[in-house]
Amino acid sequence: MKILFINSLLALSATLAHAAPDRVVTVKATVNGMVCSFCAQGILAHFKKHPAVSNVHVDLTRKLVLLEERKGKSITDEEITKYIKKSGFEPVKVERVKESFEQTKAG
Amino acid sequence: MKSISISLLLAATAAAHPVAFEGAYQLMFGTAGSVQNLEFYRSYSAQAAWGLHAMRFAGDEDEIFTGLQHNWLLKRWNLPSAQANVYTGLGAGLAGEAGNGAAPGGIGFFRADYETRRVYTAFDAKWIESADVSRGVFSAAAGIAPYKAEFDQLNTWLILQVEHVTGMEDKLDIIPKVRFFKGPYFLELGSTLSGKPVVNFMIHF
Prior knowledge:
The complex is a heterodimer.
Chain A lengths: L1 H18 L6 E7 L8 H8 L4 E7 L4 E6 L7 H10 L3 E8 L3 H6 L1
Antiparallel strand pairs in A: 1-3, 1-4, 2-3
Helix pairs in contact in A: 2-3
Chain B lengths: L1 H8 L15 E8 L2 E11 L2 E10 L5 E17 L2 E16 L5 E13 L3 E12 L3 E11 L10 E11 L7 E10 L2 E7 L5 E8 L1
Antiparallel strand pairs in B: 1-2, 1-12, 2-3, 3-4, 4-5, 5-6, 6-7, 7-8, 8-9, 9-10, 10-11, 11-12
């Protein structure tokens, strides 16, 4: 009985460990220089092409680029930094947050 | 009417950044006072672009330049609530009086700008030289946004521009204009104080 219980715990933890990367992750990047929506179109153009990104939002007031990752896929911090620089801006900080994309977007 | 149509189809754009984001195509056209511009660039990095540039100086004898041009972003300051830029560009092509042939010519420009979400300032200088054409276009502009628009909203700017074209009748054009942009579309509408229309359009894709 004890062995069965331990096996069940191990199976559960293995399932949870596998599920973690499968959840939808919201990425929040703080960016300097984004003062004009016309000039920041490159942010949208670059991130929309990335296969791991399902949603992009630019918030000029909070100086943020928000990304929603597709389930089971991921965009690296290096790629995020590179895409922001290709768009002509300066990345300051990249972080992954627990809140959903819509919650983060709503502030 | 014909000249107005040509003016509206061609373009003068002392309005926007001559280098866009990496991989972008940029089409700009417009008219301001006696000068019309048509520009098409490909930004192969966030610091450099190349493409086609055509300019027309309307007068008793219209002068036209057409050529290839390369633009560089020399320096950008990305600040938390502002951006400032310094650009330059050089081009080579043909210039001459309409109907009288054209000679090899060159174009060069320098541009500096500073903007926040509420304040805009820019200085722009262009030179066009050939055996038959020698023009300089100098402009300075300042503007304010009546409201802070978010990324997906319509942006509106009220801008006052002063422009001097060497060798033209009007010593100085004073141009009040309204700038709108949303998404990849950009439009400016205005008029010189002498009543000449100012229209600038631009798109990124």
